[in-house]
Amino acid sequence: MEQKSSNGILKQAGILAAAGIVVRIIGLLYKSPLTSIIGDEGNGYYNAAYNWYITALMIASYSIPSAISKVMSQKFALGQYKSAQKLFECALIFVTVSGTICGVLLMACAEFLVGEGGAHVLRVFGPTVLLYGPLGVLRGYFQAHRTMVPTSISQIAEQIINAVVSILAAFLLTNIAVSKLAADPASGINPAIYGAAGSALGTGAGVLTALLFMLFVYYVNRNMVRKQIANDKGKVEDTRTILLQIVLVVIPFLFSTVLYNITPNINQKIFYFFMMGIRGLSESETASLYGVYAGKALTITTIPIAMASAMASAMIPSISAKFIMGEKEESKAIATKVIRVSMLVAIPSASGLIALARPVTMILFPQRGSLNQAAFLLAGLALTVIFYSQSTITNSVLQGTGRLMVPVINASIALVAQTVIFVLLLVATPLDNMNLVITRVIYAFILFILNDISCRKRLGLNLDTQTIYIMPAIAAVIMGLVAFVVYFILTLPFGGMSDVSYLVNLVATVIAIGAGALTYAAVLVKSGNITESVLDNLPKGNKIKAILKKVKLM
């Protein structure tokens, strides 16, 4: 029974992870031409505004999918379909009110939050906060039904529309700004701000598209919903009780999520204040430095973390349902298996980003002016892939098992520690945006440790350190060395790593990644860390097993 349940979680997580990775890839692919249009300065304005937009979403509705899926899955497990439906309807009202308030406040406080340049971009994001609330509720509703397909499709559709509209709007608005500036050089118009605002329009268009799709899916499934409600002969909870449940669950999720993600906002404000107020840099120069960090290096690390986020989303309803039914051992089995699969992906991803930081950055952001700087920052950020992947999962385990305030406490401790360290680094070192990298690694590591300790206590987890961490780390180091050597040899006849052309870099990187992946698999298989039975439990495990047998590794 445990095997079947945990395999189901991994299957749904695999669906959501695949969608998440596709979404991140689309995001990276459109970021390159977008950066060419708006530049590092525009990237700085966009990312500064985007960080506060995400914070507003978290306060208004971002925690809703996880919170709603948790509560509804418990009600489904107990057969309380009428109460679940009422919860769904009350949640829609809740996010409409909270989304409106947060969207208005975001636009009203824009200049205070991100400065004059970023304020124009942040005001464009404002209305999107209202749209995202109902979208989050609908996604949480279907996640509670243990199906990630609607959410996955809506995420991909959202990102495709986002990419298309962002590029087109940024291009058109940048050209308009350039034309106005040429006609009146004294106007002070900044094309980078116009372009960044155009990119923000794409985000709103994407969210609207996803919302319309999820409404369509709900309409198609309305008969199933009616049938479930008709079969429920139990008592329906009153509106006050339902709203209280939403508030009691959402608030801890909200605090945890906000603290988990507000770190970039705090660091951005401190960074801008220090660089402009103490170092004497202009807003444009500061935005460029921040744009290289947040718009390039940080963006690349989101792809491997997407799988952990997907697993966490898929895991919450099941762990919550199992835990409320008293099946603690099965909850433990689900958590252990998800953590192991996550580390099998996160550890080699981090190693690969370190070994091939410059080649990967050149593929996605080929602008030579900041290429070396972005690659250096990426190599430093790579470790956060491991720490964030596990802390995201353990965060969800704690929330799913009722320890809603523990992640809040852990995130608070990590936030205070990293803020103090960041200020000290800025004062004591000349590392500029590298200080952002060091601080993020420290924050992620503290959160990783605290959540791991809390999770072990809550479920009595006894994770096999050698199997889950040590052997994948050894294999990942060997993989990274092989990938780097292969890339170095392939690019040597074409001018070496520093002078290689884009096309040669692309081909060499793909081959190096392939060689590294085979090396990683070979080490784990030959060491006995991965067996056929382990692969049988992984998403698409049979296909992976067939490939390994084809290349004589198994």
Overview of the structural elements:
The chain has 554 residues and is mainly alpha-helical. It has one domain. It is 86% helix and 0% strand. The chain is built from 21 helices and no strands. It has helices at residues 2-62, 64-77, 81-108, 110-144, 149-183, 191-220, 222-231, 239-261, 263-278, 283-300, 302-324, 328-355, 357-364, 371-381, 383-400, 406-428, 434-459, 465-491, 502-526, 532-536, 541-550. α18 packs antiparallel against α19. The chain starts with a helix and ends with a helix. Residues 1-7 have low confidence and may be disordered.
Tell me the β content: under 5%
Fraction of residues in helix: over 70%
Radius of gyration: 24 Å
**Tally of helical runs:** 21
Low-confidence stretches: 1-7
Topology order in helix (H) and strand (E) letters: HHHHHHHHHHHHHHHHHHHHH
Q: What is the SS-derived class? A: mainly alpha
How is the biggest beta sheet arranged?
none
Question: Judging from the principal axes of the Cα atoms, what is the shape?
Answer: globular
Give the rounded overall mean pLDDT. 83
Q: How many beta strands in the DSSP annotation? A: 0
Number of domain units = 1
Terminal Cα separation, in Å? 28 Å
Question: How do you describe this structure in short?
Answer:
This protein is an all-alpha fold and 554 residues long.
